[in-house]
Amino acid sequence: MNPAWDGVRRQFPVLERWTYLNTATYGQMPLSSAEAVARHFARRDELGCIDFLSWFDDHDRLRGSIARLIHASAEDIAFIPNASAALAILLQGLEWGEGDQVVTLSDEFPNNLYAPHFRSRVEFVETEWERFEEAITSRTRLALLSMLNYSSGRRPPLEQLGPRLRANGTLLYVDGTQGVGALQFDVQRIRPAMLAVHGYKWMLAPTGAGFMYVDPALRDRLRPTVVGWRSDRAWRQVNALHHGRPRLKDAAEKYEGGNLPHALLYALEPPVEMMLELGPEKIEARVLELARLVRCALRDAGAEVEEGETPIVAGRFKGVDVSRVASELKQRRVIVSARRGHLRVSAHFYNNEGDIARFADELKRLI
Q: Which fold has domain 40-277?
């Protein structure tokens, strides 16, 4: 049985005022997230934070839910403020040798294009998608890929690439910020060394709430780059914290170091639970069906649109300034984006066919 999408939509009252088709920029937060944060702050006022260790218990429950969403173990999950932080942990925590290569795509998200330039002794290779596998050599230590390209929506075949890269001895870093929450992601099939997800897009959380999956084999050799009071495995013994060299856990939690953004993580939990309840496979089917309708709308307006199983749909118009189109649509309370010459439309499971129809009507009036 399919979920009652109209009932889900009521969790997002912003959709009553805006035709919002821009989740690839920011996802909308459900009412249940704001309520969870309010309960946390009310509890602080009531108890004066005497129960602060129980907050970490709550977040361990969230680790478990995230792990179920991506087919991992709770010990594989660490909380991060954004994907940039996860990539920095990876690049700074590995031992690099002369001639080691990092390979990414020339149209990648800027995180993956900027960060490797700040590692000495590393050869950084940018390539077109069509030549990506040719660029992987015996010297390639690390490949950086986004789950979905932020401007075009291209979806690399990670389930085929991941095992091949691993067989080559190449670590695969996936930025899942664009995609996880809309599309299914199975770390057992893709086999990334690290998956980083900033939850403010398709995971429907506030900015600053994110998580990373760190493969157990990588944890054996990846040094923590942030060290704090929670680095020692006995950090919960707050009456007598360990002094001296920290005794690290084997779990990914060892990369967190200090305290956590408790309110933000309480806001992340309701959408994660919502996604597990709805079913990741049903969410994926829903967003891909809405994306199909968006493609039809863009083509009817004269755009060139690529096919693909992706919720990010990008259209190009000859002789049309798509930045102007996006701006004028916003004046009509229809929210999409312009990215590198594309008119980018990104519907999530809270959208419906009426949203797509309104977008199509307003676009035709403008084009």
A: Aspartate Aminotransferase; domain 2 (3.40.640)
